[in-house]
What we know:
- By secondary structure, this protein is of the alpha+beta class.
- It contains twelve helices and 19 strands.
- It has helices spanning 2-15, 58-61, 73-101, 103-114, 124-128, 170-189, 258-264, 290-310, 375-390, 406-420, 434-448, 455-462; strands at residues 21-26, 51-56, 131-138, 142-150, 157-167, 204-208, 245-251, 256-257, 269-270, 313-314, 323-326, 329-332, 339-340, 342-344, 347-351, 357-358, 372-374, 402-403, 427-428.
- The protein starts with a helix and ends with a helix.
Amino acid sequence: xxxxHLVSDLLLLLLVPHHSISFILDAGNKSRPRGSDKKVRxxxxxxxxxxRTLITSRWLFDDDxxxxxxxxxxxxxxxxxxxxxxxxxxxxxxLTAAQSFFxxxxxxxxxxxxxxxxxxxxxxxxxxSMKYQMILGKxxxxxxxxxxxxxxxxxxxxxxxxAVERLRSKGEARDEFRGIQMVENIQKKLENSPDSxxxxxxxxxxIQSTPxxxxxxxxxxxxxxxxxxxxxxxxxxxxxxxxSWYLLSLKPLYDMDLxxxxxxxxxxxxxxxxxxxxxxxxxxxIKLDEEGALQLAYELCHAGRILHAxxxxxxxxxxxxxLMISNGHVLIIDxxxxxxxxxxxxxxxxTETGKMKGEVKYVLAGEVALYRGCTEGDVFAMGRTMxxxxxxxxxxxxxxxxxxxVEKAEKENADFLSLINGxxxxxxxxxxxxxxxxxxxxxxxxxxxxxxLSFREAEDYIL
Length: 463
Protein backbone atom coordinates (compact mmCIF):
# COMPACT_ATOMS: atom_id res chain seq x y z
CA UNK A 1 0.00 0.00 0.00
CA UNK A 2 2.00 2.93 -1.34
CA UNK A 3 -0.26 5.56 0.22
CA UNK A 4 0.37 4.12 3.67
CA HIS A 5 4.14 4.30 3.18
CA LEU A 6 3.88 7.89 2.04
CA VAL A 7 1.63 8.97 4.90
CA SER A 8 3.83 7.20 7.47
CA ASP A 9 6.88 8.95 6.02
CA LEU A 10 5.15 12.31 6.26
CA LEU A 11 4.12 11.68 9.86
CA LEU A 12 7.63 10.71 10.76
CA LEU A 13 8.95 13.92 9.23
CA LEU A 14 6.61 15.79 11.58
CA LEU A 15 7.90 13.82 14.59
CA VAL A 16 11.60 14.59 13.85
CA PRO A 17 12.94 18.01 12.73
CA HIS A 18 12.96 18.26 8.94
CA HIS A 19 16.61 19.26 8.77
CA SER A 20 17.62 16.04 10.53
CA ILE A 21 16.12 13.23 8.45
CA SER A 22 14.81 12.29 5.03
CA PHE A 23 13.69 9.07 3.39
CA ILE A 24 14.55 7.33 0.13
CA LEU A 25 12.49 4.38 -1.00
CA ASP A 26 14.47 2.12 -3.30
CA ALA A 27 14.72 -1.48 -4.42
CA GLY A 28 17.98 -2.09 -2.68
CA ASN A 29 20.32 -0.98 -5.48
CA LYS A 30 20.59 2.72 -4.74
CA SER A 31 23.78 4.29 -3.46
CA ARG A 32 24.52 4.05 0.23
CA PRO A 33 24.07 7.03 2.53
CA ARG A 34 26.87 9.45 2.48
CA GLY A 35 29.29 8.90 5.35
CA SER A 36 27.78 5.56 6.30
CA ASP A 37 28.63 1.96 5.53
CA LYS A 38 25.44 0.63 7.08
CA LYS A 39 22.16 0.03 5.33
CA VAL A 40 18.87 -0.64 7.13
CA ARG A 41 17.12 -3.57 5.48
CA UNK A 42 13.82 -5.13 6.41
CA UNK A 43 10.22 -5.87 5.50
CA UNK A 44 7.52 -3.40 6.42
CA UNK A 45 4.46 -4.54 8.35
CA UNK A 46 2.40 -3.83 5.24
CA UNK A 47 4.28 -6.50 3.28
CA UNK A 48 6.56 -4.28 1.21
CA UNK A 49 9.93 -5.83 0.32
CA UNK A 50 11.60 -2.50 -0.45
CA UNK A 51 14.67 -1.48 1.51
CA ARG A 52 14.36 1.71 3.47
CA THR A 53 17.63 3.63 3.44
CA LEU A 54 17.97 6.40 5.98
CA ILE A 55 20.06 9.45 5.09
CA THR A 56 20.79 11.23 8.31
CA SER A 57 22.66 14.36 9.29
CA ARG A 58 23.11 16.17 12.56
CA TRP A 59 20.48 14.40 14.69
CA LEU A 60 21.57 10.89 13.75
CA PHE A 61 25.34 11.29 13.59
CA ASP A 62 25.68 13.97 16.24
CA ASP A 63 27.18 16.50 13.74
CA ASP A 64 29.88 14.01 12.71
CA UNK A 65 28.79 12.78 9.28
CA UNK A 66 32.03 10.89 8.83
CA UNK A 67 31.51 8.75 11.94
CA UNK A 68 30.95 5.03 11.53
CA UNK A 69 27.51 4.10 12.90
CA UNK A 70 28.66 0.56 13.62
CA UNK A 71 31.21 1.88 16.11
CA UNK A 72 29.13 4.69 17.56
CA UNK A 73 26.71 3.59 20.34
CA UNK A 74 24.79 6.85 20.17
CA UNK A 75 24.13 6.36 16.47
CA UNK A 76 23.09 2.75 17.02
CA UNK A 77 20.62 3.83 19.71
CA UNK A 78 19.17 6.51 17.47
CA UNK A 79 18.83 4.07 14.60
CA UNK A 80 16.77 1.86 16.94
CA UNK A 81 14.59 4.81 17.98
CA UNK A 82 13.97 5.75 14.36
CA UNK A 83 12.98 2.20 13.46
CA UNK A 84 10.63 1.94 16.45
CA UNK A 85 8.89 5.20 15.57
CA UNK A 86 8.57 4.25 11.93
CA UNK A 87 7.08 0.80 12.47
CA UNK A 88 4.76 2.09 15.22
CA UNK A 89 3.32 4.67 12.82
CA UNK A 90 3.03 2.10 10.06
CA UNK A 91 1.29 -0.41 12.34
CA UNK A 92 -1.17 2.27 13.46
CA UNK A 93 -2.03 3.07 9.85
CA UNK A 94 -2.56 -0.60 9.07
CA LEU A 95 -4.91 -0.97 12.06
CA THR A 96 -6.82 2.15 11.01
CA ALA A 97 -7.20 0.78 7.50
CA ALA A 98 -8.52 -2.51 8.86
CA GLN A 99 -11.12 -0.67 10.94
CA SER A 100 -12.15 1.44 7.93
CA PHE A 101 -12.52 -1.40 5.46
CA PHE A 102 -13.76 -4.15 7.81
CA UNK A 103 -15.50 -2.44 10.77
CA UNK A 104 -17.84 -5.31 11.66
CA UNK A 105 -15.13 -7.96 11.52
CA UNK A 106 -12.73 -5.80 13.48
CA UNK A 107 -15.23 -4.99 16.22
CA UNK A 108 -16.39 -8.61 16.48
CA UNK A 109 -12.79 -9.73 16.88
CA UNK A 110 -12.18 -7.07 19.53
CA UNK A 111 -15.27 -8.15 21.45
CA UNK A 112 -14.25 -11.80 21.27
CA UNK A 113 -10.78 -10.96 22.59
CA UNK A 114 -12.19 -8.78 25.37
CA UNK A 115 -14.66 -11.41 26.57
CA UNK A 116 -12.79 -14.59 25.83
CA UNK A 117 -12.67 -15.35 29.55
CA UNK A 118 -16.45 -14.89 29.73
CA UNK A 119 -17.49 -17.27 26.97
CA UNK A 120 -21.12 -18.32 26.76
CA UNK A 121 -22.11 -21.72 28.07
CA UNK A 122 -24.10 -22.66 24.98
CA UNK A 123 -23.10 -22.39 21.34
CA UNK A 124 -24.88 -20.22 18.81
CA UNK A 125 -26.33 -23.35 17.24
CA UNK A 126 -27.84 -24.47 20.54
CA UNK A 127 -29.28 -21.03 21.27
CA UNK A 128 -30.75 -20.89 17.76
CA SER A 129 -32.61 -24.16 18.52
CA MET A 130 -34.42 -22.65 21.53
CA LYS A 131 -38.24 -22.68 21.39
CA TYR A 132 -40.97 -21.06 23.45
CA GLN A 133 -43.32 -23.28 25.45
CA MET A 134 -45.26 -20.98 27.78
CA ILE A 135 -45.13 -17.67 29.65
CA LEU A 136 -44.08 -18.11 33.28
CA GLY A 137 -44.34 -14.48 34.33
CA LYS A 138 -44.54 -11.00 32.89
CA UNK A 139 -44.19 -7.41 33.97
CA UNK A 140 -43.80 -4.00 32.37
CA UNK A 141 -40.17 -4.52 31.36
CA UNK A 142 -39.45 -8.18 32.12
CA UNK A 143 -40.87 -11.49 30.97
CA UNK A 144 -39.98 -15.06 31.85
CA UNK A 145 -40.66 -17.94 29.46
CA UNK A 146 -40.49 -21.70 29.67
CA UNK A 147 -38.23 -22.73 26.79
CA UNK A 148 -36.65 -25.87 25.38
CA UNK A 149 -33.09 -26.09 24.10
CA UNK A 150 -31.38 -28.90 22.17
CA UNK A 151 -28.07 -29.73 23.82
CA UNK A 152 -26.26 -32.23 21.58
CA UNK A 153 -27.18 -32.64 17.91
CA UNK A 154 -30.86 -32.41 18.76
CA UNK A 155 -30.77 -35.68 20.68
CA UNK A 156 -31.24 -34.24 24.17
CA UNK A 157 -33.68 -31.47 25.06
CA UNK A 158 -33.59 -29.49 28.29
CA UNK A 159 -36.08 -27.07 29.80
CA UNK A 160 -34.97 -23.63 30.96
CA UNK A 161 -36.49 -20.43 32.26
CA UNK A 162 -35.58 -17.65 29.82
CA ALA A 163 -35.75 -14.20 31.41
CA VAL A 164 -35.93 -11.28 28.97
CA GLU A 165 -35.53 -7.84 30.52
CA ARG A 166 -35.45 -4.51 28.74
CA LEU A 167 -32.71 -2.26 30.10
CA ARG A 168 -33.82 1.36 30.15
CA SER A 169 -30.76 3.14 31.51
CA LYS A 170 -27.12 2.76 32.45
CA GLY A 171 -28.18 2.49 36.07
CA GLU A 172 -30.42 -0.49 35.34
CA ALA A 173 -27.69 -2.11 33.27
CA ARG A 174 -25.23 -1.59 36.14
CA ASP A 175 -27.60 -3.20 38.65
CA GLU A 176 -28.36 -6.19 36.45
CA PHE A 177 -24.72 -6.79 35.55
CA ARG A 178 -23.80 -6.52 39.23
CA GLY A 179 -26.54 -9.01 40.11
CA ILE A 180 -25.33 -11.54 37.55
CA GLN A 181 -21.75 -11.17 38.70
CA MET A 182 -22.91 -11.63 42.30
CA VAL A 183 -24.73 -14.87 41.45
CA GLU A 184 -21.72 -16.23 39.58
CA ASN A 185 -19.41 -15.36 42.49
CA ILE A 186 -21.75 -16.98 45.03
CA GLN A 187 -21.94 -20.23 43.07
CA LYS A 188 -18.19 -20.21 42.57
CA LYS A 189 -17.54 -19.70 46.27
CA LEU A 190 -20.09 -22.36 47.31
CA GLU A 191 -19.26 -24.72 44.47
CA ASN A 192 -18.51 -27.72 46.69
CA SER A 193 -20.90 -26.80 49.49
CA PRO A 194 -24.43 -28.16 50.00
CA ASP A 195 -25.43 -24.57 50.83
CA SER A 196 -25.18 -23.61 47.14
CA UNK A 197 -28.75 -24.91 46.73
CA UNK A 198 -30.02 -21.92 48.73
CA UNK A 199 -29.03 -19.46 46.01
CA UNK A 200 -30.00 -19.11 42.38
CA UNK A 201 -27.71 -20.06 39.52
CA UNK A 202 -27.46 -18.86 35.91
CA UNK A 203 -26.66 -21.24 33.05
CA UNK A 204 -25.98 -18.55 30.45
CA UNK A 205 -26.61 -14.86 29.83
CA UNK A 206 -25.98 -12.14 27.28
CA ILE A 207 -27.31 -8.80 26.03
CA GLN A 208 -28.56 -7.86 22.58
CA SER A 209 -29.93 -4.77 20.88
CA THR A 210 -32.99 -6.45 19.34
CA PRO A 211 -35.81 -8.19 21.21
CA UNK A 212 -36.44 -11.90 20.68
CA UNK A 213 -39.41 -13.00 18.60
CA UNK A 214 -42.95 -12.44 19.86
CA UNK A 215 -44.13 -15.36 21.96
CA UNK A 216 -45.90 -18.21 20.22
CA UNK A 217 -46.09 -21.73 21.61
CA UNK A 218 -43.43 -23.99 20.08
CA UNK A 219 -42.04 -21.12 17.97
CA UNK A 220 -38.32 -20.35 17.75
CA UNK A 221 -37.10 -17.63 20.10
CA UNK A 222 -34.67 -16.51 17.35
CA UNK A 223 -36.29 -17.17 13.95
CA UNK A 224 -33.05 -17.01 11.95
CA UNK A 225 -31.91 -19.41 9.25
CA UNK A 226 -28.29 -18.65 10.13
CA UNK A 227 -27.22 -19.32 13.72
CA UNK A 228 -24.50 -16.66 13.36
CA UNK A 229 -27.20 -14.00 13.33
CA UNK A 230 -27.98 -14.69 16.98
CA UNK A 231 -26.55 -11.58 18.63
CA UNK A 232 -24.80 -12.16 21.96
CA UNK A 233 -22.53 -9.84 23.91
CA UNK A 234 -21.41 -9.52 27.52
CA UNK A 235 -20.30 -5.91 27.36
CA UNK A 236 -22.27 -3.35 29.31
CA UNK A 237 -24.17 -0.93 27.02
CA UNK A 238 -22.55 2.48 26.71
CA UNK A 239 -25.36 4.38 25.02
CA UNK A 240 -29.15 4.25 25.23
CA UNK A 241 -29.82 7.10 22.80
CA UNK A 242 -31.98 5.79 19.96
CA UNK A 243 -31.22 2.20 20.89
CA SER A 244 -32.77 -0.49 23.07
CA TRP A 245 -30.94 -3.18 24.98
CA TYR A 246 -32.23 -6.51 26.27
CA LEU A 247 -30.71 -8.75 28.90
CA LEU A 248 -31.41 -12.45 28.36
CA SER A 249 -30.55 -15.09 30.95
CA LEU A 250 -31.09 -18.84 31.00
CA LYS A 251 -31.82 -20.25 34.44
CA PRO A 252 -32.88 -23.58 35.90
CA LEU A 253 -36.59 -24.12 36.37
CA TYR A 254 -37.88 -23.54 39.89
CA ASP A 255 -41.27 -24.65 41.15
CA MET A 256 -42.64 -21.30 42.28
CA ASP A 257 -41.90 -18.27 44.44
CA LEU A 258 -43.34 -17.80 47.93
CA UNK A 259 -45.86 -15.31 46.62
CA UNK A 260 -47.36 -17.90 44.30
CA UNK A 261 -47.04 -20.55 47.00
CA UNK A 262 -49.21 -18.42 49.29
CA UNK A 263 -51.86 -18.15 46.57
CA UNK A 264 -51.77 -21.90 45.92
CA UNK A 265 -52.68 -22.65 49.54
CA UNK A 266 -56.33 -21.74 49.17
CA UNK A 267 -57.38 -22.96 52.61
CA UNK A 268 -56.30 -21.98 56.12
CA UNK A 269 -56.07 -24.15 59.20
CA UNK A 270 -57.31 -23.05 62.64
CA UNK A 271 -54.56 -22.98 65.22
CA UNK A 272 -55.31 -25.76 67.72
CA UNK A 273 -53.98 -26.86 71.06
CA UNK A 274 -52.49 -29.98 69.49
CA UNK A 275 -51.02 -30.08 65.99
CA UNK A 276 -53.12 -32.04 63.52
CA UNK A 277 -52.32 -33.64 60.20
CA UNK A 278 -52.84 -31.37 57.20
CA UNK A 279 -55.66 -32.62 54.98
CA UNK A 280 -54.06 -31.38 51.76
CA UNK A 281 -50.79 -32.69 50.40
CA UNK A 282 -47.49 -30.83 50.03
CA UNK A 283 -47.22 -27.94 47.59
CA UNK A 284 -43.97 -27.74 45.62
CA UNK A 285 -42.52 -30.23 48.11
CA ILE A 286 -43.38 -28.08 51.16
CA LYS A 287 -45.48 -29.96 53.70
CA LEU A 288 -48.31 -27.97 55.26
CA ASP A 289 -48.04 -29.50 58.72
CA GLU A 290 -46.11 -28.13 61.69
CA GLU A 291 -42.94 -29.97 60.73
CA GLY A 292 -43.06 -28.43 57.25
CA ALA A 293 -43.66 -24.97 58.73
CA LEU A 294 -40.66 -25.21 61.05
CA GLN A 295 -38.46 -26.59 58.24
CA LEU A 296 -39.41 -23.68 55.97
CA ALA A 297 -38.63 -21.13 58.70
CA TYR A 298 -35.29 -22.80 59.38
CA GLU A 299 -34.25 -22.78 55.70
CA LEU A 300 -35.18 -19.12 55.28
CA CYS A 301 -33.03 -18.12 58.26
CA HIS A 302 -30.24 -20.52 57.29
CA ALA A 303 -30.04 -19.04 53.76
CA GLY A 304 -29.94 -15.56 55.33
CA ARG A 305 -27.12 -16.59 57.68
CA ILE A 306 -25.02 -17.90 54.77
CA LEU A 307 -25.71 -14.67 52.88
CA HIS A 308 -24.53 -12.41 55.71
CA ALA A 309 -22.05 -14.39 57.80
CA UNK A 310 -20.24 -16.37 55.09
CA UNK A 311 -20.68 -14.32 51.91
CA UNK A 312 -20.79 -10.83 53.45
CA UNK A 313 -23.63 -9.77 51.12
CA UNK A 314 -26.53 -7.43 51.86
CA UNK A 315 -29.42 -8.39 49.55
CA UNK A 316 -31.61 -5.25 50.01
CA UNK A 317 -34.59 -6.70 48.12
CA UNK A 318 -35.85 -9.69 50.13
CA UNK A 319 -39.57 -10.28 49.58
CA UNK A 320 -41.86 -13.24 48.73
CA UNK A 321 -41.28 -12.85 44.99
CA UNK A 322 -37.50 -13.15 45.41
CA LEU A 323 -37.66 -16.36 47.46
CA MET A 324 -38.17 -19.43 45.30
CA ILE A 325 -39.06 -23.04 46.05
CA SER A 326 -37.21 -25.82 44.24
CA ASN A 327 -37.44 -29.52 45.08
CA GLY A 328 -38.87 -28.78 48.50
CA HIS A 329 -36.31 -26.21 49.64
CA VAL A 330 -36.08 -22.42 49.39
CA LEU A 331 -33.50 -20.29 47.60
CA ILE A 332 -32.80 -16.58 47.26
CA ILE A 333 -32.86 -14.94 43.81
CA ASP A 334 -32.55 -11.49 42.21
CA UNK A 335 -29.28 -9.91 43.35
CA UNK A 336 -29.68 -6.72 41.29
CA UNK A 337 -29.66 -4.54 44.43
CA UNK A 338 -27.25 -6.72 46.40
CA UNK A 339 -23.81 -5.48 47.39
CA UNK A 340 -20.88 -6.62 49.48
CA UNK A 341 -21.20 -5.07 52.92
CA UNK A 342 -18.61 -3.20 54.93
CA UNK A 343 -18.32 -3.13 58.71
CA UNK A 344 -19.70 0.12 60.11
CA UNK A 345 -19.74 0.41 63.92
CA UNK A 346 -19.83 -3.36 64.21
CA UNK A 347 -22.61 -3.77 61.62
CA UNK A 348 -22.41 -5.01 58.04
CA UNK A 349 -23.79 -2.24 55.82
CA UNK A 350 -23.73 -0.73 52.34
CA THR A 351 -24.45 2.87 51.44
CA GLU A 352 -25.13 4.43 48.04
CA THR A 353 -26.04 7.96 47.11
CA GLY A 354 -29.39 8.67 45.51
CA LYS A 355 -32.94 7.67 46.29
CA MET A 356 -33.62 4.27 47.79
CA LYS A 357 -35.80 2.04 45.61
CA GLY A 358 -37.73 -1.13 46.31
CA GLU A 359 -41.04 -2.21 47.80
CA VAL A 360 -41.75 0.03 50.73
CA LYS A 361 -43.41 -2.75 52.77
CA TYR A 362 -40.11 -4.61 53.11
CA VAL A 363 -37.84 -1.65 53.90
CA LEU A 364 -36.81 -0.30 57.29
CA ALA A 365 -37.61 3.39 57.56
CA GLY A 366 -34.31 4.11 59.32
CA GLU A 367 -32.35 2.98 56.25
CA VAL A 368 -34.21 5.10 53.71
CA ALA A 369 -32.72 8.54 54.36
CA LEU A 370 -29.12 7.53 53.65
CA TYR A 371 -29.96 4.98 50.96
CA ARG A 372 -28.49 2.52 53.39
CA GLY A 373 -28.83 -1.23 53.62
CA CYS A 374 -27.64 -3.20 56.65
CA THR A 375 -28.22 -6.67 57.98
CA GLU A 376 -31.21 -5.37 59.97
CA GLY A 377 -32.94 -4.41 56.73
CA ASP A 378 -32.62 -7.93 55.35
CA VAL A 379 -33.80 -9.61 58.56
CA PHE A 380 -36.78 -7.24 58.81
CA ALA A 381 -37.77 -8.02 55.22
CA MET A 382 -37.43 -11.76 55.88
CA GLY A 383 -39.53 -11.50 59.03
CA ARG A 384 -42.29 -9.65 57.18
CA THR A 385 -42.16 -12.20 54.36
CA MET A 386 -42.50 -15.05 56.86
CA UNK A 387 -45.51 -13.44 58.53
CA UNK A 388 -47.28 -12.99 55.20
CA UNK A 389 -46.56 -16.58 54.14
CA UNK A 390 -47.68 -18.14 57.43
CA UNK A 391 -50.49 -15.91 58.67
CA UNK A 392 -51.39 -13.02 56.35
CA UNK A 393 -52.31 -12.31 52.75
CA UNK A 394 -49.54 -11.68 50.22
CA UNK A 395 -50.82 -8.87 47.96
CA UNK A 396 -51.36 -9.72 44.30
CA UNK A 397 -49.82 -6.56 42.89
CA UNK A 398 -46.22 -5.49 43.40
CA UNK A 399 -45.48 -1.88 44.23
CA UNK A 400 -42.39 -2.21 42.01
CA UNK A 401 -38.96 -0.73 42.48
CA UNK A 402 -40.20 2.80 42.98
CA UNK A 403 -38.49 5.51 45.00
CA UNK A 404 -39.26 5.32 48.71
CA UNK A 405 -39.75 8.26 51.05
CA VAL A 406 -39.16 8.18 54.78
CA GLU A 407 -42.73 9.11 55.79
CA LYS A 408 -44.29 6.27 53.83
CA ALA A 409 -41.77 3.75 55.14
CA GLU A 410 -42.33 4.89 58.75
CA LYS A 411 -46.10 4.41 58.41
CA GLU A 412 -45.70 0.95 56.87
CA ASN A 413 -43.27 -0.08 59.61
CA ALA A 414 -45.54 1.19 62.40
CA ASP A 415 -48.66 -0.52 61.02
CA PHE A 416 -46.85 -3.85 60.59
CA LEU A 417 -45.22 -3.83 64.03
CA SER A 418 -48.60 -3.03 65.59
CA LEU A 419 -50.04 -6.06 63.79
CA ILE A 420 -47.41 -8.64 64.78
CA ASN A 421 -47.07 -7.38 68.37
CA GLY A 422 -50.82 -7.56 68.94
CA UNK A 423 -53.00 -10.61 69.41
CA UNK A 424 -51.57 -13.76 67.83
CA UNK A 425 -53.29 -14.98 64.66
CA UNK A 426 -55.86 -17.76 65.02
CA UNK A 427 -55.43 -19.21 61.52
CA UNK A 428 -52.48 -20.23 59.39
CA UNK A 429 -51.67 -21.74 56.01
CA UNK A 430 -50.00 -24.52 57.98
CA UNK A 431 -51.65 -26.89 60.44
CA UNK A 432 -50.05 -25.49 63.60
CA UNK A 433 -50.48 -26.04 67.29
CA UNK A 434 -50.49 -23.04 69.60
CA UNK A 435 -46.94 -23.98 70.61
CA UNK A 436 -45.78 -24.14 67.00
CA UNK A 437 -47.49 -20.85 66.16
CA UNK A 438 -45.98 -19.08 69.14
CA UNK A 439 -42.54 -20.45 68.28
CA UNK A 440 -42.68 -19.17 64.70
CA UNK A 441 -44.28 -15.88 65.77
CA UNK A 442 -41.46 -15.32 68.29
CA UNK A 443 -38.91 -15.66 65.48
CA UNK A 444 -40.83 -13.20 63.31
CA UNK A 445 -41.11 -10.68 66.15
CA UNK A 446 -37.40 -11.04 66.91
CA UNK A 447 -36.47 -10.39 63.26
CA UNK A 448 -38.77 -7.37 62.88
CA UNK A 449 -38.53 -5.59 66.25
CA UNK A 450 -35.45 -3.62 67.33
CA UNK A 451 -32.74 -4.55 68.14
CA UNK A 452 -33.46 -7.30 65.54
CA LEU A 453 -32.21 -10.86 65.80
CA SER A 454 -29.48 -11.89 63.41
CA PHE A 455 -30.20 -14.75 61.03
CA ARG A 456 -27.80 -16.91 63.05
CA GLU A 457 -29.70 -16.24 66.27
CA ALA A 458 -33.05 -16.93 64.57
CA GLU A 459 -31.72 -20.16 63.07
CA ASP A 460 -30.47 -21.36 66.48
CA TYR A 461 -33.80 -20.44 68.11
CA ILE A 462 -35.79 -22.48 65.60
CA LEU A 463 -33.63 -25.53 66.24
